[in-house]
Design goal:
Layout: H1 3-8, H2 13-25, H3 28-35, H4 39-53, E1 58-59, E2 66-67, H5 69-94, E3 100-107, H6 112-126, E4 127-134, H7 140-144, E5 150-153, E6 163-172, E7 174-178, H8 179-182, H9 190-196, E8 199-201, H10 207-218, E9 227-228, H11 232-240, E10 245-248, H12 250-256, E11 263-267, E12 274-282, H13 289-312, E13 321-322
Parallel strand pairs: 3-4, 3-5, 8-9, 8-10
Antiparallel strand pairs: 1-2, 5-12, 6-12, 6-13, 7-10, 7-11
Amino acid sequence: MTGRQSERLPFDFRSLEIFLAVCETGAMGAAARRLKLTQPAVSQAVADIEQKTGVLLFDRGARPLGLTRAGAVLQQRAAALMEDALQIPPMLREMRHVRLPLVRIGLIDSLSRCLLKELSVFLMSRARKISVVSGLALQATALMNRRLDVVLSAEDLGEMDGLERWPILEEPFLILCPQGLANGAAPIDFERLARQAPLLRFPARSKSGAEIDRHLKRMRLDVPRTEEFDTAYGLTAAVAAGLGWAITTPLCIMEAGLPLESLSILPLPGPRMHRNITLVAHEIELGSLPSALAYLACNVLREKSRPFIERHCPWVDDQFVIG
């Protein structure tokens, strides 16, 4: 519920509970004893509803207290509301044990090799049917138009309400290039590299592609956009084939699963640049499933990434943050 909506309501569920207790006991003091409150607290709660609605709910001249016509209407509606509200906690608890009919999850391409198997096995234990898709086309609209229920993405959709977000990973951008091109240099001469070989890029429409373009502008480098690859494998394979160099991330290189003996992984010159991966889902609708998926994803990433980082780029260890 938004703050604006809550301001329009003249009561909350606790106020209704107090009001109904007064209706049932016929006295403020008796209602206070039942609810283990003070009598002034009960009187104040009833007075607040009356003040905010602009109507009297009780005939205070009668003993026991009598309901006004407005009070009788509120009693009827409040009793129904409270009965429905009391069903919500057990329904939510039950969701932990009931398999969902369908769960649709989207992964960015660079998570497929690392997480697809484990997430699929877990989802099959929590849903009767699952759909898992990966690739560049995971946009905010896929989640908001309900074509997907959960996404693990470089977009956290922070401008959209009604979503829950679980941080998965922060990782740095770095340079991947053939060893002969790098000449073993670190830090690398960015301008020389740009003159010697093409920069192989992610598409500009992707989150990573746009971030890299902004970084190049900050570095005052005008590097032609001549070759694009929309998958981590395609980009890494092109570098391995000697077609050029790339700005990428550790996870993207891991995703490709290619031999790296002839390649160099080097720090990116200029200001530090990183990307965040976040699990995003619609609030409440899937119960505890999003948090469980996030916990699983972090554990699997931690287990699989540690050997890669230690072997190929130990200098990124403090910049590669999981969870």
